[in-house]
Design brief:
This protein has one domain. Helices cover 56% and strands 11% of the residues. The protein has five helices and four strands; from the N terminus they run αβββαααβα.
Length: 146
């Protein structure tokens, strides 16, 4: 009997492609509400542009977006996850010791804010962590597409 010459594509370990794509989309949504570190605005005096810094956002806006991500993914996972927080969700999906879970927990801490506002170093840190988390999720999507 001849051996089967077809090679089967192995499924990457971890979450499904659907979950990864939903995570990516939800993370991009959170990213879209974070103010950029600086924005260029026209300088009417000399037709150049000057940089202004967007200094803060209400921490609650980011927390609500993170909570919506948790609800959306929990809904897709069904009984596979009962996570109540952003960090718990990433630990459920990727494992407690994963880089994704570590970044998610750090992001959760960074968005706590100070008297209701997220600004300065916390805003910068939240933006960096979110960027890194999105990059990791996109890398996992790329593995699925290979």
């Amino acid at each position: 009997m001849a051996a089967n010459s077809k090679t089967t594509k192995r499924r990457p370990k971890g979450p499904s492609l659907e979950i990864l794509k939903t995570l990516r989309d939800e993370l991009d949504g959170i990213d879209s509400i974070l103010p950029s570190i600086s924005d260029s605005v026209p300088n009417e005096e000399d037709d150049s542009e000057m940089e202004i810094t967007t200094t803060s956002i209400e921490a609650e806006e980011v927390e609500v977006a993170a909570s919506a991500l948790v609800s959306t993914i929990n809904g897709k996972l069904g009984d596979e996850s009962d996570a109540e927080s952003f960090g718990e969700l990433f630990a459920d999906i990727f494992g407690d010791s994963s880089k994704e879970a570590e970044l998610a927990a750090e992001f959760e801490e960074a968005i706590e804010g100070y008297f209701g506002d997220l600004f300065g170093e916390d805003l910068d840190r939240a933006s960096e962590l979110l960027y890194d988390l999105i990059a990791l999720v996109k890398a996992r999507i790329d593995k699925w597409n290979q």
